[in-house]
Amino acid sequence: MSEKSLTILESAKQIASSAESWADVSNALFDPVDGLLIKAYPTRPQREAFLKTEEYGEIRGLLESAIDRTGLISGATPKKSGKFLVRLPRSLHAALEREAAEEGVSLNQLVVTKLAMQVSQLTSGTAGQ
Questions:
Q1: How far is the C-alpha of 59 from the C-alpha of 50, rounded, in Å?
Q2: For the whole model, what pTM was predicted?
Q3: Do the Cβ atoms of 88 and 30 come closer than 8 Å?
Q4: 113 close to 106: Cβ distance less than 8 angstroms
Q5: pLDDT by 10-residue block (mean), the chain, 129 residues
Q6: What are the boundaries of each domain within the chain?
Q7: Which of 75, 97, 100, 108 reaches 20 to 30 Å from 29, CA-CA?
Q8: Helix ranges restricted to H, the chain
C-alpha cells in the first residue's frame, strides 16, 4: 500500500460519510474533470494501476454502501452545484460579453438576470406580451 493510495482512501471515506446521495459520492470520486481519482492519478496508466489496489476495492465498497444507504433510484440524483455548462455560438457569447461590459456587471450576473426575468415572466403568465 502506497502512502498516496492510503491518502486517497481516507479522502474517499470522508466524502462518503458526508455525501447526501450515492451520486454525490460517485461524482466526487469519479468525475472526469474534478474527481478525486482523476486529480490524484491524471494519466491513464496511473489510474489503471490504482484500479488494481486494495484501496480502490475499498473505495468501490464505499460507493456500494452509499447505494445501499440512499437507495439506487432515490440516491441517483446528486445535490445540485448551481453550475452548468452552456455552449454558445461565438457571436452570441461576444454580444453577451459586450452587454455585460456596458452594464458594468459580470457575464454570469447578466445571464442569471436574463434567465431569472424569463422564468418570472413564464411563471406569471406574462411571457410574450
A1: 11
A2: 0.61
A3: no
A4: no
A5: 89 94 93 92 94 94 93 84 85 95 91 89 72
A6: 3-76, 90-124
A7: 108
A8: 3-18, 22-30, 36-40, 44-50, 54-70, 90-103, 107-124
